Amino acid sequence: MLPTMPHDERARFLADLHVGVLGATDTRGTRAPLLVPVWYHYEPGGEVVVQTGRETIKARLLRAAGRFSLCVQDENRPYRYVSVEGPITSVTDPVDPVLREAMARRYLDPEEARAYLAATADQLKDDITFRMRPQHWRTANFAAFAAEFAEDGKSG
């Protein structure tokens, strides 16, 4: 059985800075689910927020499915991950420029964010925002295993 995270720890982990992998069912029935890396925003107890182009395959699949999943991980030892899945609660069209700026500043240093926002200003009229309420959580935190292995190594 995987070592899971308590509720508060999983919410904080999801709120930390990670690139998420968004999963959406491909309702066309001919392919596996769509999995793509995305920037996202989340505050503990709130909704997962992602933005994408209005006419992208991602947006079309999200609208058709009405739900999505997001997985984030820490690739450093001890490995940890949080995966959430739930219904889309709202779609904002077009994207809110304040939220777009906040997400850019979350992922980029101030100078990079400024340059990115200037270079992609046209996306303000092409992007939309999806909000999802996490219903199902899957988590793992291998810190306990790592500590156990470290202790075993010391006694040998």
How would you describe this structure to a colleague?
- The protein is of the alpha+beta class and 156 residues long.
- The chain has a domain of 107 residues: Electron Transport, Fmn-binding Protein, Chain A (Pnp Oxidase, Chain A, Roll).
- The chain is 36% helix and 31% strand.
- Strands 1, 2, 3, 4, 5, 6 and 7 form a 7-stranded antiparallel beta sheet that branches.
- Helix 3 crosses helix 4.
* CATH level-two architecture of the domain at 7-88 and 131-155: Roll
Question: How far apart lie the N and C ends?
Answer: 26 Å
Residue runs with pLDDT of under 50 for 5 or more positions: none
Q: Give the name of the CATH superfamily of the domain at 7-88 and 131-155.
A: Electron Transport, Fmn-binding Protein, Chain A
Q: Please count the helical segments.
A: 6
**How many strands, which pairing sense, and closed or not: the largest β-sheet?**
7 strands, antiparallel
Proportion in β-strands: 25-35%
Helix content: 25-40%
Topology pattern, helix = H, strand = E: HEEEHEEHHHEEH
- Number of strand segments: 7
Average of the residue pLDDT scores: 92
